[in-house]
């Protein structure tokens, strides 16, 4: 079946994507999804994660096509750079998630039984405090601190402005502190 936009250059396709043309995004996907998947697969080494990376990258293409500047480089390079960045970010997140900071004792030995017990109690205390936060605030903190997402990545992932994410993170951290340290501004919760 002939594709209606097959005759256009990559740069023209990206320009159409920037105007929310879904068929242009489909054309770009048809052109580069195979090479994008191959690149992602080489980096993340997992087929389903590679598919997720490609999906996130093309979502980023959809959201940021208006910022593509053809004078800086080819559209294919831009698309594959988005794929590469997301794949590397995913690998880094997975490495951070798998790393257990309690095993990395700076003194070189394992923590004493007393230290391990104290750390376990603190972990449980923080997890309990997180459960007391409103859902939106808890989600932000868990994605940032357990998921390894930066504030910019959270803004993109959640579809909110970066300034809003920063403000919400500040409020969530302040509320978490108020729960963990009851003597500091008790009852001064905000939900934004």
List keywords for this structure.
192 residues, Arc Repressor Mutant, subunit A, 8 helices
Quick overview:
The protein is mainly alpha-helical and 192 residues long.
State the end-to-end distance. Answer: 50 Å
Count the E strands. Answer: 0
The run of helices and strands is HHHHHHHH
Strand % is: under 5%
3D architecture notes:
- The chain has 192 residues and is an all-alpha fold.
- It has 2 domains: 10-98, Orthogonal Bundle (Rna Polymerase Sigma Factor, Chain: A); 110-180, Arc Repressor Mutant, subunit A.
- 69% of the residues lie in helices and 0% in strands.
- It contains 8 helices and no strands.
- The chain has helices at residues 10-18, 22-44, 47-64, 75-98, 113-132, 135-146, 151-158, 162-180.
- 19% of the residues are buried.
Write the SSE topology.
Layout: H1 10-18, H2 22-44, H3 47-64, H4 75-98, H5 113-132, H6 135-146, H7 151-158, H8 162-180
